[in-house]
């Protein structure tokens, strides 16, 4: 199944005025846009009928939403399979898609941990594999060796260290703000015309989202356990942190890492990820993330950290395309590679040379000891990665 990753502008007043829709209606509108991006003909009236049908049905189950979509969006019989696959990817968070613009026509499996029930999780078992990137997909699970709680300091410091942005919401303040005319007038009326001290307000400051993408391929086998422990601490400390793993597949493990106990959380994540220590398909996996609207939204305005050695097998065109699109969405895009722990390291591969101009950081990712301070420094400005490595070279 192939579809373009470019979103098309809304052509109907109802769709252009999306902010007037209830928040719960937004996913149905996004699904219609996804169908159009894949070449389905969907009229604005059909989108309205789809939403009305879902409202009439309750809905009591995902089956009701599917029946409403089939009845109102009317996919042609010869494209029914593509419609069903898109529905599973969008609403269930699991399925297979092939992104457009790559060098090879292969499928990338997308797995959302929110769609997996606890009783469906496989039994854990040990796996061994080589340490080189390959084209072969190897499926397997992993158990994690228990480790001391060495990330407590990082977890405590992270909420205050994340990059901040000004929200559109206002909060009261006693100094340094603007006059809150509405509340000041209400206070004057309540005081029978007396003019009290003027009330001030200022824009609220909120932490930016944190998106961590962890490479679990065979060449990263020595580091994935530490990366997931770091990710668990991040999810516990930052409510807007999102974690994905990728190798030959893309898996969202955020819900698993929200479990407070680290060992239980890692065991749950280990059961979810199917492609431990297999091949490497960085570009297709990242493009798969960007092709699903609710996953791509996690990168908007976020500090995005890719934990990978950057060893993409085959051509690097898809990896370059994905990194450019991530950079366009993100507040800051960083690549942390364990290869940079070697003093002789330099980004000389074609893939790293291609993505270097869009990276804000290319840093050492060889251990938690160097990664934790880097994440805590994301709020501080830094020169572009291309400038830093050009100066070093």
TrEMBL record:
Name the UniProt record assigns to this protein: VWA domain-containing protein
Domain VWFA: from-to ranges: 207-364
Gene source species: Ollibium composti
InterPro entries: UCP010256 (IPR011195), Uncharacterised_CoxE (IPR008912), VWF_A (IPR002035), vWFA_dom_sf (IPR036465)
Pfam families cross-referenced by the UniProt entry: VWA_CoxE
Basic and acidic residues bias spans: 12-21
Disordered, as annotated region: 1-21
Segment forming the signal sequence: none
